[in-house]
Automatic annotation (TrEMBL), chain A:
Keywords per UniProt: Acetoin catabolism
Family under the similarity heading: Belongs to the histone deacetylase family.
Entry annotated with the keyword Transport: no
MF annotations from Gene Ontology: histone deacetylase activity
Designated name of the protein: Acetoin utilization protein AcuC
InterPro entries: AcuC, HDACs, His_deacetylse_dom, His_deacetylse_dom_sf, Ureohydrolase_dom_sf
Pathway: Ketone degradation; acetoin degradation
Coiled-coil stretches noted in the UniProt entry, renumbered to this chain: none
Classification via Pfam families: Hist_deacetyl
GO BP, one annotated term: epigenetic regulation of gene expression
TrEMBL record, chain B:
Presence of keyword Phosphoprotein: no
Domain of life: Bacteria
CDD domains (alphabetical): CBS_pair_AcuB_like
Residues annotated as domain CBS: 7-64, 78-137
Name used for this protein in its record: Acetoin utilization protein AcuB
Length: 393, 213
């Protein structure tokens, strides 16, 4: 039985943030860099899309909440590692002290603050205090219950889904548009028919983490509540959006969630240094719009968004994530030039020349060979991924 | 790798005096294609395959004829000359046997008793495991000269970046016998630095790379 309010919320949308999220920092050279939050917020503030009243500081989180999706001995080792009591060799079985997830001071506190922010977002939406909420610092989708992986220590989405199930009796649809497969979240709910996970990502044939094939559909009673669309390397906007939109519409209509949780990794862009997709800003204009529409159509508006990957923090992430917030807060979708002041401020620090406009210049890159075949293959992948929906078995 | 590491130990079997109906039902319920036939001492006395069953049965449109055959005994149509394997056989050699004899399964016998079964599906799955991603990792593919020391050069690069290697395959380049293809999965989401070093040392990267027409 649902334990959340169904009345229309007072606030349209809230932006969960505190500077403590910036302490989730492995090193100056590490590709995962939360400076992107500062760049994004500055951009939003300068166009008048984000004001102080909309920003909500996160509450704190308890170990009990973390234990909803994490093992106690893992939490313990992360706590001790952040205070200098764990060597790399001791941390390695737990995925910490590695090149991807090195040990850093107060790593437990930093990771827990990200979880807290995502839980705050969920509370706002489930209690009807806001229709939508975003925590761009969250979306650490590779974390497992007993292991850090792929830059992610605590999987805030897994914890948030369990939390919403337990506290509010909610059916949650998790949607992951990061270029990497959302493995940590998927496998946390692989046998749970009350949570549905959908991930669209670059094929794991070469790219990390390697999972996320169409045949991963869930197990036991949860068979058919896990969806994967592994698209080909060098996939472009139209093919990406076609697969995403078709899948979203059919999955939401079938699963009938109480709330949609979207993970908005911004690493499917052509510029992203870690992945091999060839998308542009166009997908980041459309992805939140489709989620937003469906949340209103099926979930009384309930939509929580988190961040995720995104490793071109200068040219890609600030614009891409701004679109999540402008969509969510009903601010008119920005186009045209970026604010002069923003460009000037951040160009001074950026190692690459910033893109001066909201939309990417066209064409952004040389024509992709085999575009037709890639598009055809992705359409076939979509068809196979939705097989259990289209042919009820 | 030995057959005993790969074989299925829980084998579904029938007795020679059971019926065609029993065989058909077992295959359907367990979604299997091969049934070893054993006596009371678990000695292998025959084998029936989905193929044998299809050959013995009339068309599914001829319902009456089919039903009239349901009670015929397995021993009437099972294959009695069965190729068998041993738990200590090598999987690599066994795979060749499947290929050369065009068989779909191999009952595994030890001390006269049936102890397991290996099918073409199991061997295929093993290949998927060997080449696939079972732990979060990224794949890099290179073409190198077939020279001594190349592999140590490559693994040194991985070690320098403290990247653990999940799997590594070396196989001949089908188009150039003086070259080898090396496919590595490393436990890292960001293999860029490794890839850069490989390029610096002059390795030809097949992946990551742009697709060619």
């Amino acid at each position: 039985m649902a334990k959340f309010t169904d009345h229309v919320a007072h606030e349209n949308a809230v932006f969960i943030y505190s500077p403590s999220q910036l302490t989730y920092k492995f090193s100056d050279e590490h590709p995962f860099n939360q400076k992107r939050l500062e760049l994004t917020m500055d951009l939003l503030t300068q166009i008048g899309a984000l004001n102080a009243q909309q920003i909500v500081p996160p509450r704190t989180t308890t170990d009990e909440e973390l234990l909803l999706a994490l093992d106690a001995d893992y939490i313990d080792i992360v706590k001790r590692a952040g205070h200098g009591y764990v060597t790399n060799a001791e941390g390695e079985p737990f995925g910490i002290g590695t090149e991807d997830t090195p040990i850093f001071p107060n790593m437990h506190e930093a990771s827990a603050s990200i979880v807290a922010a995502t839980l705050t977002a969920c509370d706002y939406v489930m209690q009807g205090k806001a229709q939508h909420a975003v925590n761009l610092g969250g979306g650490l989708h590779h974390g497992f219950k007993n292991k850090a992986s792929g830059f992610c220590i605590y999987n805030d989405s897994s914890i948030a889904i369990r939390y919403m199930q337990k506290k509010y009796g909610a059916r949650v649809l998790y949607v992951d548009t990061d270029a990497h497969h959302g493995d940590g979240v998927q496998f946390s709910f692989y046998d749970d028919p009350d949570a549905c996970t959908f991930s669209i990502h670059e094929t794991g044939r070469y790219l990390f983490p390697g999972t996320g094939s169409i045949t991963e559909r869930g197990t036991g009673e949860a068979y058919g509540t896990s969806f994967n669309i592994p698209i080909d390397a060098f996939t472009e906007d139209d093919s990406f959006l076609y697969c995403y939109k078709e899948a979203m519409e059919e999955i939401v209509a079938d699963f009938r969630p109480d709330i949609i949780l979207t993970q908005n990794g911004a690493d499917a862009h052509h510029f992203d240094p870690l992945t091999h997709l060839s998308c542009t800003m166009k997908i980041y204009q459309e992805i939140p719009r489709i989620a937003h529409d469906l949340a209103h159509k099926y979930c009384n508006g309930r939509w929580v968004a988190v961040g995720g990957g995104g490793y071109d923090i200068w040219r890609v992430v600030p614009r891409a994530w701004s679109y999540v917030w402008t969509e969510m807060s009903d601010f008119e979708q920005p186009h045209g030039p970026l604010p002069e002041k923003w460009l000037k401020r951040w160009q001074a620090e950026s190692p690459v020349t910033l893109i001066p406009t909201w939309d990417d210049p066209s064409p952004l890159f040389e024509a992709i060979p085999r575009r037709a075949e890639i598009t055809e293959k992705n359409a076939q992948t979509l068809e196979k991924a939705l097989y259990t929906l289209r042919h009820k078995i | 790798m030995l057959v005993e590491n790969l074989m299925i130990q829980k084998v579904y079997t029938l007795k020679p005096t059971q019926t065609l109906f029993d065989a058909e039902e077992l295959m359907r319920n367990r979604r299997i294609r091969h049934i070893p036939i054993v006596d009371n001492l678990n000695h292998l006395v025959g084998l029936i395959t989905e193929q044998d069953l299809k050959r013995a049965m009339p068309s599914s449109l001829l319902t009456t004829e089919r039903n009239s055959l349901n009670n015929r005994l397995i021993e009437e149509f099972m294959v009695t000359e069965v190729l068998v394997g041993h738990p200590l056989d090598f999987v690599e050699e066994t795979a060749l046997l499947f290929f050369e004899e065009r068989i779909g399964c191999l009952p595994i016998v030890s001390h006269g008793e049936l102890v397991g079964i290996l099918t073409d599906t199991d061997i295929l799955y093993n290949y998927i495991e060997l080449t696939g991603a079972h732990k979060p990792s990224s794949q890099i593919e290179l073409r190198t000269a077939d020279q001594i020391g190349v592999l140590s050069q490559i693994t040194t690069i991985c070690a320098n970046h403290r990247a653990s290697i999940i799997s590594l395959l070396v196989y001949p380049d089908a188009n150039d016998s003086s070259k080898k293809i090396i496919s590595i999965r490393v436990k890292s989401i960001s293999p860029q630095a490794i890839i850069e070093d490989m390029r610096k040392e002059g390795f030809e990267l097949l992946w990551p790379n742009l697709p060619t027409m």
